[in-house]
Amino acid sequence: MKEITLEMAEKMLEAAERWAALAGYPSSIAVVDKAGAVIAMHRMDGAGPMTTDISINKAFSAVYSGAPTLMLARMIDPRMMGETLGSGGLGLLTQARLRLMFIPGGNPIRDGDMKVIGGIGCSGIPAGVGEISDTTAVQAGYAAIYEEYD
Amino acid sequence: MVMNIDIAKKVIKAAIKQAQEMDRLCSVAIVDDRGFLVALHRMDRAPIPTVDIARDKAWTASTFRMPSSDIGKFGDPSTPGFGFNTQNWNDRLTTIPGGLPINDGDEVIGGVGVSGGTPEEDVSVCRAALATVFASD
Asked: What is the ipTM of this complex?
């Protein structure tokens, strides 16, 4: 698998949307390519307008940093000062023309060689409600193209 | 009728089919009646900037309730509304043809924006998509 096609992106969106619907929280889900550019984005009925850009930016941030946005959230967490990025973690805030998201729910997608080939982001599911969150929705998303990994 | 994800997906599918027939690589964006994005697809290997151009066209068509190509008329000093190009429209206003409002009767329920071909081709992709989806209703 070298790059993510629109067809694969739609498959991922469908799976993530099913997950979000199951949780009962309408959400926006976005899939981006290895450049961080949108391939497909859906806002489910009832999801707020703000979730669109958040989901896109989460997916972008995952590609840009090569890490889940959950990890970025940890990096700027004041309680983690001196552990993850020394004392300079807050410097991340000004990066990427303010497009970096520090909210969990964006994950990079990697191929068999662990190279980042894209990202997926979800916004709309509150964190800390049961076992379901934006992160589990995006995991359901890229699990849907599992058979395409090589 | 209000814009929802099902209508948006149908319009996008029809637009991409039309673009494939015309042998063009496009992005298609659908916004609701407030100009907020509902769905956005970029065809494989379509250029990256088409994403934001398509979105801007859809926003312009939906919020101004007119095709994005009509915005150019406000560049004429004798037209009421001349000069509004000097305002900051959230960086989204565009005069490039290829964005059409989606109507339900007299009501605008959203907008569609296509980017990837020449402006004329983008408009015909929009028209064909809307004709396909709303002809049967």
From this structure: 0.89
Q: Do the Cβ atoms of B42 and A45 come within 8 Å?
A: no
How far does B42 lie from chain A, in Å, by closest CA?
Answer: 5
The domain defined by B5-74+97-135 carries CATH number 3.90.1150.10:
no
| Residue B103 buriedness (CB in 10 A; 0-12 / 13-18 / 19+) | middle
**pLDDT tens readout for residues A66-110:** 999 999 998 888 887 777 676 677 888 888 888 999 999 999 999
Q: Is B80 helix (H, G, I), strand (E, B) or coil?
A: coil
Residue A47's closest chain B neighbor by CA? B38
Q: Which of A38, A50, A98 to mutate to test the interface with B (most CBs of B within 10 A)?
A: A38
Residues whose CB falls within 8 Å of the CB of residue B46, separated by 6 or more in sequence, listed in order: B25, B26, B27, B116
Residues found in chain A: 150
Q: How confident is the model at residue B136 (pLDDT cuts 50, 70, 90)?
A: low
Angle at B20 between CA A42 and CA A37, to 5 degrees: 40
Domain boundary assignment for chain A: 6-148
- Superfamily of A6-148 according to CATH: Haem-degrading domain (3.30.450.150)
Instruction: From chain A, pick out residues whose CB is under 8 angstroms from the CB of B16.
Output: 6
Comparing C-alpha atoms, which of A24, A93, A26, A31 is closest to residue A58? A31
